[in-house]
Write a structure and sequence with these properties.
Layout: H1 13-30, H2 32-37, E1 44-51, E2 57-66, E3 69-77, H3 86-100, E4 105-111, H4 116-121, E5 125-131, E6 138-145
Parallel strand pairs: 3-4
Antiparallel strand pairs: 1-2, 2-3, 4-6, 5-6
Length: about 150
């Protein structure tokens, strides 16, 4: 078997797409869960948008439900709206919606300098930590059981 190895230090969207597609094909072949989640409407989005009196977005939550999990991708508020209970409200609201969609657990990630203690106060537990990522901090994977 002959092959050539090339190192490129530039973005290569075509090559990235190729690798991503090959990994998806492998996952589809070896995991029925991966195959099922790729079906239309298998991933159910949840977006909770918070606006001010003038209609400007000041924060919110972006998440998705699949595999009976709620995955929280983003939760953010403008600093003027922090500390007022909105984050906990949105978490609770998204969890309730997700349960109605069949979710039994929640997954999210956060950095040490972001919101670990906030999530812990809402019942989330650290199940994974990458130390010194970024340097001097940690990156956490957190979960919560809804049932």
């Amino acid at each position: 078997m002959r092959y050539n190895i090339e190192v490129s230090l530039k973005n290569n969207e075509k090559f990235s797409t190729f690798l991503h597609q090959k990994i998806r094909e492998f996952n589809n072949e070896h995991s029925r869960h991966h195959k099922e989640v790729r079906k239309e409407e298998a991933v159910q989005p949840i977006n909770i948008i918070v606006s001010d009196d003038t209609g400007n977005w000041v924060g919110g939550l972006n998440a998705a439900v699949y595999w009976n999990w709620l995955e929280i991708n983003d939760l953010w508020f403008h600093e003027d709206y922090r500390g007022k209970g909105l984050g906990g409200n949105l978490l609770s609201q998204s969890e309730k919606i997700a349960q109605e969609m069949g979710a039994t657990k929640v997954l999210l990630t956060t950095f040490e300098f972001q919101a670990r203690t906030f999530y812990e106060s809402k019942g989330y537990q650290v199940v994974g930590e990458i130390k010194d990522y970024p340097p001097g901090s940690s990156y956490y994977t957190m979960v919560k059981t809804l049932i």
